[in-house]
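Hi R.,

Here's the chain you asked about this morning:
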Amino acid sequence: MSERVPTYTAEQVRAAERPLLEAGVPLMRRAAGALADVVRAELATPETVVTMTGVLEPVIRETPLALRPRVLVLAGSGDNGGDALYAAAHLSRIADVDALLVSERFHVTALATAVAAGVRRVDLPEVDDAVRHYALVVDGILGIGASTDPSLRGRARGAVTAIRDDLRRGGRMPRVIAVDIPSGLHPDTGVADDAVLTASVTVTFGAVKSGLVTGRGPDLAGDIVLVDIGLGPALASVDPVGAASVSRIVTAPAD
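And here is the predicted structure, written out as tokens:
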């Protein structure tokens, strides 16, 4: 059953995050843990159950190798890339996870954590040849930090265009999970060009960004899952810009 929630601009969300970040609250770790839980549920493995409170709880055991799905994580240079890589480290218990870095810059600690957990770095030619063998693609390229002009460029645009074209050729398609917003979608207006992966599910953190439900947002975002990372008190005094329906609300794992 869907729930109706307010929507906010990227700047309103950043302002709500700021005091928590300054206080050392690990928002990235919270977001990554929740993202991993949602991906586990999407993979429909026995390792994830939904509690009566709606919180996704992982069962800590590894999946037999013969049953492990394959997951591709697209990681950009900013916080969304860090979210995706930390989530990849969690997911390596139940899946064979590949990480494609689409920028020369990346979150060094998150990548080290992912690789130490068994995540494999891959290059675009490997992905291009095998994209249909992935059960899921996690889009962690860009988030709300690119709200001035979120259009993908360079290596990121090339990767998304190649994967998008592979997906359009038909056959078995992996689902796409967007991290916070589909990369390339403007978080406030919903404007986007053609270099965007259409998501099956968007896992958005703290609050629903208005661009998910305006412009091209509804066509690109898929089902919206809202993750409570603790921004409620800061957003309580802020006027929302609209409203949206989300498929569910989950609470990020404890620090």
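One quick note: The chain has eight helices and 13 strands.

Cheers,
M.
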